[in-house]
Design goal:
- The protein is an all-beta fold.
- Helix content is about 0%, strand content about 45%.
- The protein has strands at about 5, 20-25, 30, 85-90, 95-100, 105-115, 120-125, 135-145, 150-160, 165-175, 180-185, 195-200, 205-210, 220-225, 235, 250-255, 260-265, 270-275, 285-290.
- It is globular.
Length: about 290
Protein backbone atom coordinates (compact mmCIF):
# COMPACT_ATOMS: atom_id res chain seq x y z
CA UNK A 1 0.00 0.00 0.00
CA UNK A 2 0.88 3.66 -0.09
CA UNK A 3 2.83 5.39 2.65
CA UNK A 4 3.59 9.01 3.50
CA UNK A 5 5.59 11.07 6.02
CA UNK A 6 3.64 12.15 9.07
CA UNK A 7 4.06 14.29 12.16
CA UNK A 8 1.49 15.03 14.88
CA UNK A 9 3.48 17.69 16.71
CA UNK A 10 3.61 21.39 15.99
CA UNK A 11 4.98 22.06 12.47
CA UNK A 12 7.43 24.52 14.05
CA UNK A 13 9.17 21.65 15.89
CA UNK A 14 9.59 19.08 13.12
CA UNK A 15 13.26 18.19 12.48
CA UNK A 16 14.31 20.43 15.39
CA UNK A 17 16.34 18.80 18.18
CA UNK A 18 15.16 15.24 18.78
CA UNK A 19 11.83 15.71 16.95
CA UNK A 20 11.43 13.90 13.64
CA UNK A 21 8.78 12.75 11.20
CA UNK A 22 7.39 9.24 11.10
CA UNK A 23 5.77 7.12 8.39
CA UNK A 24 2.11 6.08 8.10
CA UNK A 25 0.75 3.47 5.74
CA UNK A 26 -2.57 3.22 3.97
CA UNK A 27 -4.43 0.04 4.96
CA UNK A 28 -7.91 -0.65 3.66
CA UNK A 29 -8.31 2.89 2.45
CA UNK A 30 -7.42 4.43 5.81
CA UNK A 31 -4.16 6.02 6.96
CA UNK A 32 -2.73 4.12 9.88
CA UNK A 33 -0.86 5.48 12.94
CA UNK A 34 2.28 7.56 12.56
CA UNK A 35 5.09 5.10 13.20
CA UNK A 36 8.54 6.25 14.37
CA UNK A 37 7.74 9.92 14.91
CA UNK A 38 9.29 11.79 17.83
CA UNK A 39 7.31 14.77 19.15
CA UNK A 40 8.27 17.32 21.83
CA UNK A 41 8.50 16.19 25.44
CA UNK A 42 9.41 17.94 28.66
CA UNK A 43 12.98 19.28 28.65
CA UNK A 44 15.28 17.54 31.14
CA UNK A 45 18.98 17.96 31.83
CA UNK A 46 20.24 15.15 29.59
CA UNK A 47 22.19 16.74 26.75
CA UNK A 48 19.30 16.59 24.25
CA UNK A 49 16.80 19.14 22.93
CA UNK A 50 13.73 17.08 23.87
CA UNK A 51 11.22 19.94 23.72
CA UNK A 52 12.50 20.76 20.21
CA UNK A 53 12.91 24.50 20.61
CA UNK A 54 16.49 24.47 19.18
CA UNK A 55 18.04 24.82 22.64
CA UNK A 56 19.56 21.99 24.65
CA UNK A 57 18.83 21.67 28.38
CA UNK A 58 17.23 25.10 28.77
CA UNK A 59 14.75 24.04 31.45
CA UNK A 60 14.70 25.70 34.87
CA UNK A 61 16.08 22.53 36.48
CA UNK A 62 19.22 22.63 34.33
CA UNK A 63 20.64 26.02 35.32
CA UNK A 64 24.34 25.02 34.98
CA UNK A 65 24.96 26.45 38.46
CA UNK A 66 26.85 24.57 41.18
CA UNK A 67 24.52 25.42 44.06
CA UNK A 68 26.83 24.32 46.88
CA UNK A 69 30.61 24.44 46.45
CA UNK A 70 32.27 21.46 48.10
CA UNK A 71 35.78 20.04 48.08
CA UNK A 72 35.88 16.53 46.67
CA UNK A 73 37.47 13.91 48.92
CA UNK A 74 40.96 12.66 48.12
CA UNK A 75 41.23 9.67 45.82
CA UNK A 76 43.04 6.47 46.71
CA UNK A 77 44.64 6.38 43.28
CA UNK A 78 48.34 7.29 43.49
CA UNK A 79 48.91 6.90 39.73
CA UNK A 80 46.61 9.84 38.89
CA UNK A 81 48.44 12.84 37.49
CA UNK A 82 47.52 15.91 35.42
CA UNK A 83 45.52 17.03 32.35
CA UNK A 84 42.13 16.60 34.04
CA UNK A 85 38.87 17.75 32.41
CA UNK A 86 35.34 17.40 33.81
CA UNK A 87 31.78 17.12 32.45
CA UNK A 88 28.30 16.83 34.04
CA UNK A 89 25.63 14.36 32.91
CA UNK A 90 22.71 15.84 34.81
CA UNK A 91 23.17 13.22 37.54
CA UNK A 92 26.90 12.76 38.07
CA UNK A 93 30.37 14.00 37.15
CA UNK A 94 32.97 12.42 34.90
CA UNK A 95 36.59 13.52 34.63
CA UNK A 96 39.64 12.59 32.59
CA UNK A 97 43.03 12.04 34.15
CA UNK A 98 46.52 11.14 32.98
CA UNK A 99 48.02 8.16 34.80
CA UNK A 100 51.57 6.84 34.75
CA UNK A 101 51.32 3.10 34.17
CA UNK A 102 54.29 2.16 36.35
CA UNK A 103 55.64 -1.35 36.76
CA UNK A 104 55.96 -3.25 33.50
CA UNK A 105 55.51 -0.15 31.37
CA UNK A 106 57.88 2.46 32.76
CA UNK A 107 57.48 5.83 31.07
CA UNK A 108 54.15 5.18 29.34
CA UNK A 109 50.94 6.95 30.26
CA UNK A 110 47.22 6.19 30.02
CA UNK A 111 44.05 8.25 29.88
CA UNK A 112 41.46 7.34 32.52
CA UNK A 113 37.80 8.35 32.78
CA UNK A 114 36.60 8.66 36.38
CA UNK A 115 32.91 8.87 37.34
CA UNK A 116 31.74 10.49 40.58
CA UNK A 117 28.34 10.92 42.20
CA UNK A 118 27.06 14.32 43.37
CA UNK A 119 28.99 13.97 46.64
CA UNK A 120 32.26 13.23 44.87
CA UNK A 121 32.33 9.49 45.63
CA UNK A 122 34.28 7.59 42.98
CA UNK A 123 31.94 5.24 41.08
CA UNK A 124 34.19 3.87 38.34
CA UNK A 125 37.64 4.20 36.81
CA UNK A 126 38.02 3.23 33.14
CA UNK A 127 41.38 2.97 31.39
CA UNK A 128 40.64 4.34 27.93
CA UNK A 129 44.02 3.79 26.28
CA UNK A 130 45.78 0.77 27.91
CA UNK A 131 49.33 1.69 26.91
CA UNK A 132 51.50 -1.36 26.24
CA UNK A 133 54.87 0.12 25.20
CA UNK A 134 57.28 2.07 27.40
CA UNK A 135 57.48 4.71 24.67
CA UNK A 136 53.69 5.10 24.32
CA UNK A 137 52.32 8.38 25.66
CA UNK A 138 48.77 9.70 25.91
CA UNK A 139 47.86 13.17 27.18
CA UNK A 140 45.76 16.33 26.66
CA UNK A 141 42.40 14.56 27.20
CA UNK A 142 39.00 16.28 26.97
CA UNK A 143 35.55 14.84 27.74
CA UNK A 144 31.93 15.75 26.96
CA UNK A 145 28.54 14.24 27.91
CA UNK A 146 26.46 13.25 24.87
CA UNK A 147 23.10 12.58 26.49
CA UNK A 148 23.61 8.83 26.95
CA UNK A 149 27.36 8.49 27.44
CA UNK A 150 30.65 10.27 26.89
CA UNK A 151 32.98 11.31 24.10
CA UNK A 152 36.70 11.57 24.91
CA UNK A 153 39.53 12.95 22.77
CA UNK A 154 43.26 12.85 23.53
CA UNK A 155 46.73 13.11 22.01
CA UNK A 156 48.57 9.83 21.40
CA UNK A 157 52.15 9.32 20.27
CA UNK A 158 55.08 6.94 20.41
CA UNK A 159 58.29 8.72 21.39
CA UNK A 160 60.36 5.98 19.69
CA UNK A 161 58.60 6.47 16.36
CA UNK A 162 59.03 9.14 13.69
CA UNK A 163 55.27 9.08 13.04
CA UNK A 164 53.46 12.29 14.09
CA UNK A 165 51.22 12.31 17.13
CA UNK A 166 47.54 11.57 16.48
CA UNK A 167 44.32 12.97 17.93
CA UNK A 168 42.11 10.07 19.03
CA UNK A 169 38.38 9.74 19.91
CA UNK A 170 36.71 7.12 22.12
CA UNK A 171 33.03 6.72 22.97
CA UNK A 172 31.92 5.42 26.40
CA UNK A 173 28.45 4.51 27.68
CA UNK A 174 26.79 6.13 30.70
CA UNK A 175 28.49 3.63 33.03
CA UNK A 176 31.96 4.44 31.72
CA UNK A 177 32.34 1.29 29.60
CA UNK A 178 34.16 1.55 26.27
CA UNK A 179 31.90 1.50 23.19
CA UNK A 180 33.62 0.27 20.04
CA UNK A 181 37.22 1.04 19.13
CA UNK A 182 39.09 4.33 19.30
CA UNK A 183 38.87 6.48 16.15
CA UNK A 184 42.02 8.10 14.73
CA UNK A 185 41.17 11.71 13.80
CA UNK A 186 44.50 12.27 12.10
CA UNK A 187 47.95 13.72 12.90
CA UNK A 188 48.36 16.82 15.05
CA UNK A 189 51.02 19.51 15.43
CA UNK A 190 54.45 18.78 16.87
CA UNK A 191 53.97 20.88 19.99
CA UNK A 192 52.35 20.53 23.40
CA UNK A 193 49.73 22.81 24.87
CA UNK A 194 46.06 23.38 25.74
CA UNK A 195 45.10 23.32 22.09
CA UNK A 196 41.99 21.12 21.76
CA UNK A 197 38.26 21.30 22.54
CA UNK A 198 35.23 19.01 22.03
CA UNK A 199 31.49 19.76 22.08
CA UNK A 200 28.26 17.79 21.55
CA UNK A 201 25.38 19.20 19.47
CA UNK A 202 22.66 16.68 20.31
CA UNK A 203 23.33 14.56 17.23
CA UNK A 204 27.11 14.71 16.74
CA UNK A 205 30.40 16.15 17.94
CA UNK A 206 32.81 18.84 16.84
CA UNK A 207 36.53 18.82 17.66
CA UNK A 208 38.55 22.03 17.48
CA UNK A 209 42.33 21.97 17.49
CA UNK A 210 45.36 24.16 16.88
CA UNK A 211 47.49 22.84 14.03
CA UNK A 212 50.95 23.92 12.92
CA UNK A 213 54.62 23.40 13.69
CA UNK A 214 56.94 24.63 16.42
CA UNK A 215 58.03 28.14 15.48
CA UNK A 216 55.75 28.14 12.42
CA UNK A 217 52.25 29.42 11.70
CA UNK A 218 49.34 28.05 13.72
CA UNK A 219 45.73 27.57 12.63
CA UNK A 220 42.52 26.85 14.53
CA UNK A 221 40.82 23.96 12.76
CA UNK A 222 37.49 22.18 13.26
CA UNK A 223 36.20 18.72 12.36
CA UNK A 224 32.58 17.53 12.62
CA UNK A 225 31.97 13.94 13.80
CA UNK A 226 28.88 11.75 13.78
CA UNK A 227 27.43 10.41 17.04
CA UNK A 228 29.91 7.51 16.99
CA UNK A 229 32.93 9.75 16.53
CA UNK A 230 33.47 9.06 12.82
CA UNK A 231 34.73 12.12 10.91
CA UNK A 232 32.22 13.74 8.54
CA UNK A 233 35.05 15.52 6.74
CA UNK A 234 38.64 16.68 7.25
CA UNK A 235 39.85 19.27 9.73
CA UNK A 236 39.17 22.70 8.21
CA UNK A 237 40.80 26.03 9.07
CA UNK A 238 38.31 28.45 10.67
CA UNK A 239 40.79 31.10 11.83
CA UNK A 240 42.74 32.29 8.81
CA UNK A 241 45.92 31.81 10.84
CA UNK A 242 46.88 32.93 14.34
CA UNK A 243 50.57 33.71 13.97
CA UNK A 244 53.35 31.62 15.47
CA UNK A 245 52.25 31.66 19.13
CA UNK A 246 50.22 28.80 20.61
CA UNK A 247 46.67 29.96 21.40
CA UNK A 248 44.26 28.43 23.88
CA UNK A 249 40.87 27.49 22.46
CA UNK A 250 37.39 26.77 23.82
CA UNK A 251 34.16 25.67 22.17
CA UNK A 252 30.48 25.33 23.11
CA UNK A 253 27.29 24.24 21.35
CA UNK A 254 24.81 27.13 21.44
CA UNK A 255 21.64 25.29 20.44
CA UNK A 256 21.88 25.87 16.68
CA UNK A 257 25.63 26.30 16.11
CA UNK A 258 29.08 25.98 17.66
CA UNK A 259 30.91 28.99 19.02
CA UNK A 260 34.71 28.65 18.97
CA UNK A 261 36.95 31.19 20.71
CA UNK A 262 40.73 31.53 20.90
CA UNK A 263 43.30 34.09 21.97
CA UNK A 264 45.14 35.69 19.06
CA UNK A 265 48.42 37.63 19.25
CA UNK A 266 48.82 40.10 20.75
CA UNK A 267 47.85 38.22 23.90
CA UNK A 268 44.54 39.41 25.27
CA UNK A 269 42.86 39.62 21.87
CA UNK A 270 39.98 37.10 21.80
CA UNK A 271 38.59 35.91 18.48
CA UNK A 272 35.23 34.18 17.85
CA UNK A 273 33.94 32.10 14.94
CA UNK A 274 30.40 30.75 14.60
CA UNK A 275 30.29 27.34 12.90
CA UNK A 276 27.23 25.32 11.88
CA UNK A 277 26.54 21.71 12.85
CA UNK A 278 28.29 20.39 9.75
CA UNK A 279 31.47 22.31 10.61
CA UNK A 280 30.95 25.08 8.05
CA UNK A 281 31.69 28.67 9.22
CA UNK A 282 28.46 30.69 9.43
CA UNK A 283 30.07 34.12 9.64
CA UNK A 284 33.41 35.93 9.70
CA UNK A 285 36.07 35.77 12.42
CA UNK A 286 35.13 38.41 14.99
CA UNK A 287 37.24 40.16 17.61
CA UNK A 288 35.25 40.06 20.87
CA UNK A 289 37.94 41.42 23.21
CA UNK A 290 41.06 43.45 22.45
CA UNK A 291 44.45 43.32 24.13
CA UNK A 292 45.08 45.81 26.93
CA UNK A 293 48.14 47.89 26.07
Amino acid sequence: GDSQPCYSGSPATVDIGECKRGIQSCVGGTWGPCQGEVTPSEEVCDGFDTDCDAYIDNSADCDRVCDVLEELPGLDAPALHTYGQVTWSGQLFAATSLAYVGAGCEGCTDIHVLRFDRQGTLLSDTNVTNAQLSTQDNDDAHIVWNGSGYGVIWRAFDSASSDPAARMFQKLDQNGNLVGNAVDLGPIADFMGPSTAIAWSGSGYAVARVYGTSGGSKYVQLMALDRNGNPLGPFTDISGGVGTSLPEIAMVWAGTHYAVVWNDPPWGTIKLRIVDQAGVPAGPVRTVASAVQ
